[in-house]
Amino acid sequence: MDNIYDVAIIGSGPAGFSASIYSSRYRLKSVVFGKMIGGTIADAHKVCNFPGVPGLTGLELGQRMYNHAKEEGGEFIFESVETLKKEGNVFRLITDTKKEYLAKSIILATGTKRNKLHIPNEDTYLGKGVSYCATCDAMFYKDKVVAVVGGSNAATMAATMLADVAKQVYIIYRGKELRGEPAWIEDVKSKGNITILFETLVTELQGNDVLERIKLNKKINDSEYIDVNGLFIEIGSEPNATLPLQLGLELDEKQYIKVDERQATSITGIWAAGDCTTNSNRFQQVATAVGEGAVAANSVYCYLKESPNC
Prior knowledge:
Layout: E1 4-5, E2 7-10, H1 14-25, E3 30-33, H2 58-71, E4 75-77, E5 81-87, E6 90-95, E7 100-103, E8 106-108, E9 112-114, E10 130-131, H3 134-137, E11 145-149, H4 153-163, E12 168-172, H5 182-190, E13 194-197, E14 202-207, E15 211-220, E16 223-227, E17 230-233, E18 237-239, H6 242-247, E19 270-272, H7 286-305
Parallel strand pairs: 1-7, 2-3, 2-8, 3-4, 8-19, 10-17, 11-12, 11-17, 12-13
Antiparallel strand pairs: 5-6, 6-7, 9-18, 14-15, 15-16
C-alpha cells in the first residue's frame, strides 16, 4: 500500500507542525492537512513567550514553523478534512475537495475557534466594524474609536496593539479586574488612550451600513451607548469538535479531547495535541502545543514500530 501515510496530522498550527517535524525525524511518511499556516497563532500581534524567538508576530512564527517542517521533509495539503473514518486498522480521510487519503494513524491538532457574543447584529456587521482578529484589521482603524470585548490575554494584547493605531480604545469586560499575564496588563495600563469599563456587557450593535455604536447593559457618562468605528471580540475560544464528535472520541464537558500522558485518545490509532486537548493543565500556549505535538509523534512512532524502548 504505497499510497498510505504512516500518520495524517490534521491541523496546521504549532502542534501540527511540531508533530510533522518529529514524524519526519522518525522517518515516518506523514502529511499535514490545514487551510491556514500557523492556525490561530497567525492572528497574534506579537509572541513574547516562545523561547528563543521573542517579539515575532504570530504569522512570522507560524511561517518559520512551516518552513522548518518542510525542510525536514513534511508534506502539506491545504485542504480541510471533513470526514474521518476508521476502517479496520486504517483511517480514511475525505477533504473539502472530496479527495480521499489513507493513513495508519491520526494526530488531531485541530485547535480552537473564536467565541462569539451572540448578540443582535453581530453577524450583520462582521467585516463592517466587527472583527475577531485585531492583527488582521487594526490598521483599518487608524485615528478612530474602537472597543475590545474581553479581559484576558487576547483582549489585553489586542487593546495594546490597537492603542498604537486608534485614537481611543475601550476595553469592555464583565469581570471586576483584568486577567492573564501581568506584562500585558501593565502594557494596557501604560497607554493613555485606553479606557477600561469593568462589570459591563455589550448588548447590541447599531449602525446603518457599518457599525456606528454599541449598546451597553448600563450607563457610562449618562448614556448606555458608545460611538465606535470598530468592535474587536476577544472572549476566548472553544475546541473544533466536529471530527472528534464524528469519531465518537471521549471528550470532556467542554468538548476538549481527553488524552493520556502519551497524547493517546480513547480510540486506538488516534492521538491529539495542542489546544484541542485536556493536557498541559489546559494552558493553551505555543510552547505547550509544540510539546504535545512532539509527544504525539513519538507515541505514533512507538505504535507503528512496536518499539519496546518506548
